[in-house]
Amino acid sequence: MGGWILMLEYLSKDDIPDTLKDIVDAIGIDSFKELIKLVGGSNLYIPNESSITKPVRNKIIRDTFKGDYKEVARRFNISEVQVRNIIKIKDH
Question: In what residue span(s) does the Mor transcription activator domain sit (predicted)?
Fold first, then answer.
């Protein structure tokens, strides 16, 4: 960087646009600065919680399945057909 002052070091929450302050509140100013360094200027898609955790849910279902489709469907608030499809993947 030579003689350039790293301006990001001086960035405070007061400098952040209101549209981004929720992110700073959630992850902190230091993590926000790291996010800027990593993906600043690019379009970033952040998946919603259900789509990012669906593979985890499906793994739990496959690993703990004991034969009761109805119980699993109720436990995870999904249909029995969905449970059967998830279990079917395990069998292949």
Answer: 21-88
24, 65, 88 from 18: Cα distances, Å: 10, 46, 47
Residue 1 within a domain? no
Q: Where do we find the tokens 């898609």?
A: 45
Is 65:88 a contact under the CB 8 Å cutoff?
Answer: no
Residues 87, 55 share a domain: yes
Both 54 and 85 in one domain: the answer is yes
Integer Cα distance of 61 and 90 in angstroms: 10
